[in-house]
Specification:
alpha+beta; two-stranded antiparallel ribbon; 2 domains
């Protein structure tokens, strides 16, 4: 995906669809193409401090929020279980 945008009469080129994902999936591309058919422009979000950084989609991907939480909880539960299992062995010594 390539797009062109203008900030203060300076042209920039972007390739990033989202902050969260490096790749764009078919359904997302189809949504963008449908937008293009109707208006020929797509809203682009630009970092005001660095106009070379831009994305098209600002939505949060719940996968990148839920998976680390599930991973942390899993490690805590496994660690707690290991500590709980090892307690009887320590009390006998």
């Amino acid at each position: 995906m390539n797009y062109e945008y203008d900030v203060n009469n300076v042209k920039y080129y972007g390739t990033r669809y989202s902050f969260w994902k490096k790749t764009v999936y078919h359904d997302q591309l189809m949504r963008i193409f449908h937008e293009l058919k109707s208006s020929q422009t797509v809203k682009c979000y630009v970092d005001p401090n660095n106009p070379q950084n831009s994305v098209i989609d600002l939505r949060i991907s719940w996968f990148w929020i839920i998976m680390p939480v599930i991973t942390c909880i899993s490690f805590l539960l496994i660690g707690g279980l290991l500590i709980f299992i090892s307690l009887p062995f320590k009390s006998k010594n």
